[in-house]
Amino acid sequence: MAARLKKEDEAWLDQPPSPFALPLLLGAALLSAGLVFYAAGNVALAAGFGASIIAIAALMRWYRHLYPAALSHSEATPDWTVARAAADASHIAIAVTDRAGRLVCASDLFGEWFPGYPTPPGVTGDAALTESLSQAARAAWRDGDGKLEGLAMGALRLDVDIARTGRSEDYLLWRFTPVRQPSALDDVHRFLTGEAGRQLGEAGIMAVMIGGEGRIRAANGAFLLRAAGRIDANITGRDFAAHMRVDDKGRLFLAREENGGLPLRLLQVPLRRASQPGGAQGSAQDGPMLLLLIDEPSGGGGTSALSYIETLLSLLPFGLAMADRDGRILFVNKAFARAAGLKAGTKPSYPGDLVAREDQAAVADAVRRFAVGPQMSGDIVVRMREQPDEPTALSLAGVRGLGEAAVLLSLKDNSEESKLKRQVAQATKMQAIGQLAGGVAHDFNNILTAIIGHCDLMLMRHTPGDSDYDDIQQVKSNSNRAAGLTRQLLAFSRQQTLRPQILQLPDIVSDVSNLLKRLLGENVRLEVSHGRNLGAVRADPGQLEQVIVNLAVNARDAMPEGGTLNIQTYAVPAAKAREMRQQILPISDYTALRVSDTGLGIPPDILAKIFEPFFTTKELGKGTGLGLSTVYGIVKQSGGYIFAESELGRGASFVIYLPVYAGADAEEEAPLREPVKRAETWGSGTILLVEDEDMVRAVAERALTRQGYKVLTANDGEQGLEVLAAHDDIDLLISDVVMPNMDGPAMVAQARRTHPRLPVLFMSGYAEEQLRKSIDIANVAFLPKPFSVNQLAQAARDTMAMQPAAE
């Protein structure tokens, strides 16, 4: 509409006046004067009004001839030269098309990326991509904008944004933006544009990073100043070759310096490679690289330039080394030495000295080819001598003009990655050992239950002083010691029964301090300190005491000549936990317990194994190797984390992080029962005993029968339900949890349908806390194995007294 009005105005201005224009104007003036005279009755006023109309019409005609553009109803023709200059300044590819599908404007970068300035959407020969661009264009005409992501143009990947624009919205603006791939190259980008890049510039070294397509991604100030004339110039995305020139002798110069500049030495450092096992591949143009430009000293070779390179390589954060044509290593930086496992101040003679014997020939051959062949780069997969089980990519690049240096070696530092792999492997191994230990402890608990039960039954028939009484007592004592070992195994596997309470760590440390002073002896001094604002934790106080005692005893043994044992408690808020950047420790509020000593320390190769069960560095017969594994299991079962820190000759520290309890309503702990006298364990009634282990079932049946109960037995859950259906006078159901065919929880769930008020006592070698999470049955009691005859009788009496509410 605006374009049509504009054409009408221009046509009206260019045509001569119509012959009817003056009579029509005079007629309109007389008619207006007549209307005024009729309304006002004044001749002078009417004549003046008609004359004013004629004067205004004349002035408008005269003004239109003087300023025709000011009265145009539509916009002027766009100045595409200004639009193109603005597009070039944005450093992205821009094109503008009209409704007829014609290209009316495009930036220079658009012409570089799409030679010949093709009209969008026909910028690519791929019919599918052209159709996708056409659909995005139709969406832009319809909705105002369209988008296509991941347009592939050779090495470029572009995002295309299309927008409807113009006052009449009769143009489409096409913007082609390179896709930025986040990678480790960001570190190199920050290196060049930061303080390190500035220091390189002060040393006379220009550094620039280019992509595989040959365009600049980052540069330091020295290159910007000399290549573009300003240190704040923005040349990102420009073609690197456009800033360089080569003379007839093959020497490299900056294009801007023309004949006044010095020749430059160019060192190419490949930054990323797609490697394949078994050999080198690719070229330096396949991926991003770091280019180092150094002024060639007048009349000099590469010796002084080499010193510049060595200074640079020592600053770079990735491992680099240089070797001569014979394969001898000339220089290694700190990152390379760390990745290769070299000691400080040492330098190998040849690259083959760093790798396993099987890979030495391949490395020597690759160095020789890169040193004397055409200038190229590639990767070779090797196994380092210090870590033969972990393949590592060794990058090689041939360099020329640096004196003795002929090959540049790059080695990735895999220390952190290897550390994470070892931690995952250790966690997997510990989990497998924990499952094995839990299963062994469960089966062993059944055997100990039978042994302890039979000992109790025999002791009932003997009195102190009998010939067999002491022997039976000794068997029971040894069985109880074995039960203690199984509890430690269950603690390690996080399957022991805990009685958690809401408590403060300083209180636990105070309760156990007197015991520690007796255990540590006179040569070890105990120091205790507590922080402020400690949050409460939820844990079993008895188990925490065992944790502190075990750590203290280990610390005492690590200080044979005496020392200091320091126990600290302090708060670790979430902000501090975040600053620690500990990958295993989640961000939360913790209360920490640190137990440290001034002993001999733990060697690094042993530090990773100290929490494994049965691992000990003590002499044969001194220690079971379950102390630290028990500590580990208790801490993990309590929801906490434990870390060991040590330095040889300077002692060791164990730090435990327990999460701060944030529950508003803690579960009330059951009140302590009064000790039950032996006479009170007698009872009456009928008990159904379901146990798949014959020896456990036999000793439990005899024990309950001697206490006055009538006992019915069953081998599994199915037989238990049959016995229950055949007897209506059963007062208590005692059942094992894990049984073949039908386990205890499944049997109890069916039994409760017909006997909703039947008391139930579960007995198992697994942890009560773990079982209650998997058993969704209310009003049941629990008896952990192994148990004595008296404990079984007490549990039976207490459970029968617990009458659940009727459903």
TrEMBL record:
- Looking at the record, the residues that make up the Histidine kinase domain are 439-662
Name of protein: histidine kinase
Tell me one Pfam family matched here: HisKA
Tell me the organism's taxonomic lineage: Bacteria, Pseudomonadati, Pseudomonadota, Alphaproteobacteria, Sphingomonadales
Name the domain of life.
Bacteria
Q: Does the keyword Transmembrane helix apply?
A: yes
Going by the UniProt record, its keywords in alphabetical order are: Membrane, Phosphoprotein, Transmembrane, Transmembrane helix
Residue span(s) of domain Response regulatory: 686-800
Known EC number: 2.7.13.3
Q: Mark the residues carrying the PTM 4-aspartylphosphate.
A: D736
- Kindly list the residue ranges recorded as spanning the membrane: 20-38, 43-63
Q: Which organism is it from?
A: Sphingobium naphthae
| Keyword Phosphoprotein attached | yes
Listed SUPFAM superfamilies: ATPase domain of HSP90 chaperone/DNA topoisomerase II/histidine kinase, CheY-like, Homodimeric domain of signal transducing histidine kinase, PYP-like sensor domain (PAS domain)
Q: Which reaction does it catalyse?
A: ATP + protein L-histidine = ADP + protein N-phospho-L-histidine
